[in-house]
């Protein structure tokens, strides 16, 4: 039940804080394999109106998550 890390889930009104990074080539291919077929690489809109891509998990949840102190 649950994971020790955050998972993005679709929510049209949702907002999160995060970091945008550029990943290309072999590293992007490895991430596709790591995330697996259940997660979808999905276009998301950033607060400044620009777009980015994020892996989105299936389903939904109302369970919150707090980053451990070690991060």
Walk me through the structure.
The protein is α+β, with helices and mostly antiparallel strands. Helix content is 15%, strand content 17%. It has one helix and two strands. The protein has one helix at residues 25-35; strands at 40-45, 51-56. It starts with 24 loop residues before the first helix and ends in a 15-residue tail after the last strand. The mean pLDDT is 80.
Keywords:
71 residues; alpha+beta; two-stranded antiparallel sheet; 1 helix; 2 strands; 15% helix
Provide a concise account of the structure shown.
This protein is an alpha+beta fold and 71 residues long.
- Mean pLDDT score: 80
Task: Give the strand tally.
Answer: 2
**How many helical stretches?**
1
What letter string, H or E per element, gives the SSE order? HEE
- Strand coverage percent: 15-25%
Categorize the overall geometry: globular
Structural class: alpha+beta
Helical content band: 10-25%
Q: Runs with pLDDT <50, length 5+?
A: none
What is the strand arrangement across the widest sheet?
1-2
> Radius of gyration, rounded?
13 Å
What composes the largest sheet?
A: 2 strands, antiparallel
- Distance from N terminus to C terminus (CA atoms, Å) equals 22 Å
Task: Please give the structural blueprint.
Elements lengths: L24 H11 L4 E6 L5 E6 L15
Antiparallel strand pairs: 1-2
């Amino acid at each position: 039940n649950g994971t020790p890390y955050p998972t993005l889930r679709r929510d049209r009104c949702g907002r999160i804080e995060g970091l945008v990074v550029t990943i290309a080539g072999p590293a992007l291919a490895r991430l596709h394999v790591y995330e697996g077929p259940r997660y979808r690489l999905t276009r998301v809109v950033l607060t400044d109106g620009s777009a980015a891509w994020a892996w989105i998990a299936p389903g939904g949840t109302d369970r919150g998550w707090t980053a451990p102190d070690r991060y």
